[in-house]
Design a protein that fits this description.
By secondary structure, the chain is an alpha/beta fold. Helices cover about 35% and strands about 20% of the residues. The longest helix is centred in the last third of the chain and has 15 residues.
Length: about 260
Amino acid sequence: MERLPIIFVSHGSPSLALEDCPARDFMMRLGRNLGAPRAIVAISAHWATREPAVTGAVNPETIHDFYGFPDALYRIRYAAPGAPEIAENVAELLGAAGFKCAIDQRRGLDHGAWSPLLLMYPEPRIPVIQVALQPHRGAAHHLALGAAIAPIRDAGVLIFASGGATHNLGQIRGPSNTPAPRWVSEFSDWLTATITEGRTRDLVDYRQVAPYAAENHPSEEHFLPLIVAAGAAGEGARGRSIHASYTYGVLSMASYAFD
């Protein structure tokens, strides 16, 4: 089967599914542009485990893992089927690379996965599984994790990483169209240059070499899906920018593809 690009999106606020903004419009086009994969392997910022794990549920539930949003958001159900066979394949790939991997038969889809997929593929027909992060293991671990699962692309499966190019919720000020301050835009610009130039090592070492890294990522869970995507693409692979915008000033909605 033809390989699909590896995709990383910044999923922003859970309310992305309801709010008009450039990132929402982009995601609605993205699914049409990609076409329908056989299945989707999603790496979301919102599932963390001690050891690698994949979801194995036949009918994963829609997890509403957020608080204080409009009632309409909690009524959304994204009833995509699971893909136990793909989960087994991914677990085998991780095992062959030396990772201890569990298959979680109960875990559903969190909003890092279903919120963008709802916009990309409104009819939930494409099977979806998730791969968990281990934020305590750092960036190099996730680069290796991405490299381990890369062969699943040969089966017509989309590797879909969902996190945030920047993610400091404590600095949100004002409405969704608030301009980005310099400390956010400089990091986002550095990130795009690093990805398009294929500087994988700088991406892994971002906390040491990127401007305002700690300010934009007080914790790493929203950056690590991007590292997984880069690992699946391969050392030195050049990505391309497929979207750039900001919401609430401090959330870069930058998204990338690795071909």
